[in-house]
Every structure is written in structure tokens, then in C-alpha cells.
């Protein structure tokens, strides 16, 4: 049997006060893709969203519409039709020394790790002797030179040598896309942005020269709380700042509908002075 899955992925690479290098992905069974896209696009039309929806566009005026859209999106996550993965790095884990080459390639090195591990692709094939599983990768446009982007894609192709038998990624299936044309990626961006917002305490930011928060900040915090409530419907008391437990079953990295991964590079050391508690 041949199975196909599509992974949409994006990143928020800006350095935060406490957490940085946010990567997000949505995995969909290819046979369900058209139906899900139609449902989400119809919901956008119903809500009079005729342009791209994204975290940076959330405002007090549009908050009710974003809440309705994200609640609708989570229905597909809760029933397992869409799987969400969020990866980030805690700034408090630092290197005594980081090679210049690795620092310059950090963006793609982390992106590679995200694709390789976050969805648990290694554990996706229960019947490797009978099933062939293919993955298509739709990457939001990569913010670097064509040469570096092609090198990254070639590294992704090398995963074919590491995965189990009958798990494949073909060269023509690694595609850069424009998020304006892909509603699943847009909705995932909202979740990804909300985690960056909360983990970096952006919900506490006050207006310049004032002792109060802006309307947009308050609206985004309300939307984050809706997102968090939906996650807790799946996993009660979910901790957004740590790697989601496998609960004694490594295959849950593949099976779970929603997971976080706090990436920690080998050789890094925890500097407690840089943790959120200390810096506050």
C-alpha cells in the first residue's frame, strides 16, 4: 500500500528574550488534503477573511474572527486529521564556544533537525514490508540564497538513507511555497506565533511611556489563551515550555496530534542567569 503525507513548515527565526529559533509544521494525510483545504477556505470566506491570516495581523477588531477560525482549525487537530509540531530553543542553553561555520548555518541546521525528528517520521511505518510511505515537504519561502537553499534541500534528501525501509522523500516533492496560497500553513503560523508570544513574555509588554498594555497585545493574549485551551483539551495541563512527553511509547512522536520540542544542542550548558525567572 502506498501512503502519502504532506508537511507544511515555517519558522520564526528572530531572537527572543528567552526563547528563539521557532519552527512549526503541519502534517496532513494527502488523501484528506483537498477536503481540509476546502473547509478552511470556506470558513475564511464566511468570516470575511479574503487575505492571508497570520499571527502578526491579529488585532482587537479581528479577534472574534481569529478565535472562530482557530477553534475550527483545532477540530482537525483533535480528530487527528492534522498533526502540529512546534520546535524552539531556550536561550539559557549556551555554548562556551561555537564554531563560526555552525553559527552561520544555524538556521538550516536547526531546520534539518526539525524535519528529521519533530514528526517522528522514523516511526511512521508499522508495516515496512508491505507499505510505502512518501512525504511531500512544502516549505514557506526560505530566507536565504538559492545556493544555500538547494544545499539544505539536498541534506533533506539524505534522510532517505537514514529512515527505515519504504519511507521516501523525492527531490521534486521538496517545494518552496508562498503562505498566501496555503491556508493550513497560515493557521499553523497563528499557533507558532502565539507560542513565541507567550514564551517570550510579549504578553506583558506595555506601551512606550505608559503603564498599560496596548489593545493588540491584550487581543493576542486572549487568542493565545484560546489556543492553549484547545491544546489542553488534547493534553490536560500541557506545558508549552518543555518537550512533550512520549509517555513511555516512542511512537507517540509520530502518533500524537500536537507536540512541542524544546531543542537542546549537544554540548550546550545551562546558564541559569539567562533563564526567565532570573532575568525577571
Can you describe this structure in just a few lines?
By secondary structure, this protein is α/β, with parallel strands linked by helices. It has a single domain (2-279), classed as Ribonuclease H-like superfamily/Ribonuclease H (Nucleotidyltransferase, domain 5, 2-Layer Sandwich).
The major beta sheet can be summarized as: 7 strands, mixed
CATH class: Alpha Beta
Kindly state the number of beta strands.
9
Low-confidence stretches: none
Could you state the order of secondary-structure elements as H and E?
A: EEHHEEHHEHEEHHHEEH
- Tally of alpha and pi helices: 9
In terms of DSSP E residues, the strand content is: 15-25%
The coarse overall form would be globular
CATH topology heading: Nucleotidyltransferase, domain 5
Question: What is the C-alpha radius of gyration, as a whole number of Å?
Answer: 19 Å
Distance between the termini: 54 Å
Quote the average pLDDT.
94
CATH A-level architecture: 2-Layer Sandwich
Number of structural units classed as domains: 1
Can you tell me the CATH superfamily? Ribonuclease H-like superfamily/Ribonuclease H
Work out the helicity level: 25-40%
Task: Give me some keywords for this one.
9 strands; 7-stranded mixed beta sheet; two-stranded antiparallel sheet; globular; Nucleotidyltransferase, domain 5; alpha/beta; 280 residues
Description:
The chain has 280 residues and is α/β, with parallel strands linked by helices. The protein has one domain: Nucleotidyltransferase, domain 5 (2-Layer Sandwich), CATH 3.30.420. Helices cover 38% and strands 20% of the residues. The protein is built from nine helices and nine strands. It has helices spanning 33-46, 63-78, 100-104, 106-117, 146-158, 183-199, 215-234, 252-255, 276-279; strands spanning 2-12, 19-29, 82-90, 93-94, 132-140, 167-168, 174-177, 258-263, 269-270. The strands form two sheets. Strands 1, 2, 3, 5, 6, 7 and 8 form a seven-stranded mixed beta sheet that branches. A two-stranded antiparallel sheet has the order 4-9. Helix 1 runs antiparallel to helix 2 (63-78), helix 4 (106-117) runs parallel beside helix 5 (146-158) and helix 6 packs across helix 7 (215-234). The N and C termini lie far apart (54 Å). The mean pLDDT is 94.
Amino acid at each position: 500500500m502506498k501512503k502519502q503525507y504532506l508537511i507544511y513548515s515555517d519558522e520564526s527565526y528572530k531572537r527572543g528574550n528567552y526563547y528563539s529559533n521557532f519552527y512549526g509544521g503541519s502534517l496532513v494525510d494527502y488523501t484528506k488534503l483537498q477536503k481540509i483545504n476546502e473547509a478552511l477556505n470556506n470558513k475564511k470566506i464566511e468570516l470575511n477573511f479574503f487575505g492571508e491570516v497570520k499571527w502578526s495581523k491579529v488585532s482587537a477588531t479581528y479577534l472574534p474572527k481569529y478565535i472562530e477560525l482557530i477553534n475550527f482549525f483545532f477540530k482537525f487537530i483533535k480528530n487527528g486529521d492534522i498533526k502540529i509540531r512546534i520546535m524552539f530553543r531556550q536561550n539559557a542553553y549556551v555554548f562556551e564556544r561555537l564554531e563560526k561555520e555552525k553559527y552561520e548555518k544555524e538556521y538550516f541546521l536547526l531546520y534539518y533537525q526539525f524535519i528529521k525528528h519533530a514528526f517522528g517520521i522514523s516511526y511512521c511505518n508499522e508495516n515496512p514490508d508491505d507499505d510505502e510511505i512518501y512525504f511531500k515537504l512544502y516549505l514557506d519561502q526560505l530566507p536565504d540564497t538559492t545556493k544555500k537553499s538547494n544545499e539544505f534541500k539536498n541534506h533533506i534528501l539524505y534522510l532517505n538513507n537514514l529512515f527505515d525501509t519504504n519511507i521516501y522523500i523525492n527531490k521534486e516533492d521538496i517545494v518552496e511555497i508562498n503562505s498566501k496560497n496555503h491556508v493550513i500553513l497560515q493557521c499553523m503560523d497563528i499557533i507558532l506565533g502565539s507560542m513565541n508570544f507567550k514564551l517570550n513574555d510579549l504578553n506583558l509588554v506595555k506601551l512606550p511611556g505608559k503603564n498599560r498594555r496596548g489593545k493588540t497585545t491584550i487581543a493576542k493574549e486572549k487568542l493565545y489563551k484560546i489556543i492553549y485551551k484547545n491544546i489542553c483539551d488534547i493534553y490536560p495541563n500541557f506545558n508549552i515550555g518543555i518537550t512533550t512527553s512520549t509517555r513511555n511509547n516512542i511512537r507517540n512522536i509520530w502518533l500524537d496530534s500536537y507536540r512541542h520540542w524544546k531543542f537542546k544542542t549537544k554540548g550546550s550548558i545551562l546558564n541559569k542567569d539567562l533563564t526567565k525567572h532570573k532575568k525577571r
